[in-house]
Amino acid sequence: MAAALFQTLAVLLALTLYAVIVGRAVLHYLHMLQLNSYRNERYLRWLNEDLLKRIGPVSLLPLVALLFYWNSGLFFGIWIGGFLLLSLKRPKVPVKKPLVVTGRVKRLMTAIFLIWVGASLPTFFLGSTGLSSIPYFSLFLMLGLLLLLLPWLLVVANLLAVPVESAIARWYIGDAGKIINDMPGLQVVGITGSYGKTSTKFILNELLLSKYNALMTPGSFNTLLGVTRIIREKLKPIHDLFLVEMGAKQPGDIREICELVHPRYGLITTIGKQHLEMFKSLANIVKTKSELVESLPSDGIAFLNADDESFAEVRGRTQARVVSFGVDSPGADYAAREIKYLANGLTALTLSLPNGETLLLETRLLGKNNIYNIVSAVAVAMELGVPENRIKATVRSLQPAPHRLNVKKSAAGITIVDDAFSSNPMGARAALDVLREIEGNRKVLITPGMVELGETEAEENRLLGAYAASRCDYVILVGIEQAKPIYEGLVSEGYPENQIYIAAHLNEANDHFAKISREGDVVLYENDLPDTYN
């Protein structure tokens, strides 16, 4: 009797701990799938990059315990003790983009639960009825296999959900299309580009609010379904202008958004080597970003960066009127020149206008990339009739978008330059220039480098390290593997190795900086990789 009671209690405790661990694992893999846009091929690429690390000891523990099933005490000791130890020693890794529990996530969780129940119940009954020669062995074997196969079971569940998710998405998109079609007076401005589209959107929104009742897609809501959600939840008949940020992970993404919102105005901030991992070539990026201007009507306006190498090609892809802007191209319709960094922390510039006149602007925003954002936004605002006096006042009052070259002082007297939202070759160099120019003592860089640059990623990160060598007094790199090319670039320029520290993750980087920092130091946070790269 005592032995049977022990086994029953042990089974219940083992199953309870197992359920806790499986729940955490399901949430983890769902998070990774969500960060990879629910695309199985991208999720599997992440999984296969370091398979043993991805599945971890948690997934292998049940099968190890089963090797000792002949000794119930030893088996339950390994199973229960192992899961208990792993749950208590769970590492606290910083999360940039937490899992968003959407309807799709809930449906996938339900599918995984049904797979688990469907596979486990028969083996449970087999063990509990005594029909199995080794009680509950088949149950624990099945549970071990399910946990080991969980990453791939999620792919299966995602595939099975495709018809349902597609039907739901089509209904949402159709409903959003009806809302747009019922607002014939609505003017839509589409914004895309490899860099700067979110910051430019925020700036343009501020400029337009003095004349229009405008709505913009918030944050980085720049996918078809993200835009669809904003239309259904936020767009009202009182709005007369809609700013739509348009992102792309593959060709056709921007065209789909344009077919939904029908933009009359299109702004391409700049086109560069961003997301080369997905697009494979710069030519594919140019073609995809051009989908915005190709969709514009003949009475629309395409705002294009005259400094881009692809300017002429993109210009030839639209039937709309083209308005150019730039910093290095004096012949642009809207051209920034005489850029000065003033002692009061402001940046001053002279903007030449299409009519030959000039507009003097001052801004709190830092860096050349922000000059591009301002000039492009001002070009759109002026073409849409916003008065010059309102433009000057708004540009001077602009605050940086979150995590895009924000500058603040800590209680310890350290100047923090926060450019952690994302990183690209042009923006990273601009941020390092700001670090060099800003007033302060030691200049410290904390960065994991750049991602999604395809075959050029390692080389671009080496170049980033070489560029940083002349602009930093101390460098903290984040990510043991990710940081290697940046380290090589630093060393190639003769940068002292004792002024480089490599941290496993951001928490460790912050802890190390806290130990070495002194009052008056300036630290630049350049990029903060999403969890898929940690």
Automatic annotation (TrEMBL):
Span of domain Mur ligase C-terminal: 403-524
Keywords on record: ATP-binding, Ligase, Membrane, Nucleotide-binding, Transmembrane, Transmembrane helix
Keyword Nucleus recorded: no
Mur ligase central domain location: 191-381
Residues that span the membrane, as ranges: 67-88, 108-127, 139-162
GO molecular function, one term: ATP binding
Transmembrane helix among keywords: yes
Segments forming a coiled coil: none
Name of the protein in question: Mur ligase
Lineage: Bacteria, Pseudomonadati, Pseudomonadota, Gammaproteobacteria, sulfur-oxidizing symbionts
